[in-house]
Amino acid sequence: MIVGIGVDLVDLARFERAVDRTPKLRERLFAESERDKPLRSLAGRFAAKEALIKALGSSDGVHWLEIIVSNSAEGDPGFELSGETAAVVARRGITSLHLSMSHDAGAAIAFVIAERTDAADQKESA
After folding, report:
1. Is-contact 4 97, C-beta < 8 A?
2. Which of 41, 78, 92, 96 has its CA 20 to 30 Å from the CA of residue 115?
3. What is the DSSP string of 19-44?
């Protein structure tokens, strides 16, 4: 069952100006493994993290550095969550997070779907 949907759009030029103006943003928003990525990739990751927060319905207990946007061996984007952020997702009963990202024409966009498998859903599929 879908329990949350989030989307976020980032203007690449505006994001670049913010990073140039405040270099510490990379350290505040991105895990060490993400920081050296090109700005368009960072903008996409920023959008993904924002979309995740929207899908969760609140930023309470969510920490930027505990959310890593990574790619599977097939290249599909996803989240690696840790710490309190992972605990928040678990407490909310979320069992799957789906992420789609793109960048083009000066913008980066991310879309997140949060799902949970309810006991009723499991019984119906049995």
Report:
1. no
2. 41
3. HHH-TTHHHHHS-TTTTTS-HHHHHH
- Going from the first residue of the chain to its last (126 residues), give the mean pLDDT of each consecutive group of 10, the final group possibly shorter: 97 96 95 94 97 96 97 95 97 96 95 86 51
Pairing of strands 67-71, 2-11: unpaired
Quick one: tokens of 77?
A: 């984007």
Partners of 70 in beta bridges: 78
- Cβ(31)–Cβ(79) under 8 Å? no
Element (DSSP H or E) covering residue 47: helix 39-56
The residue count of the chain comes to: 126
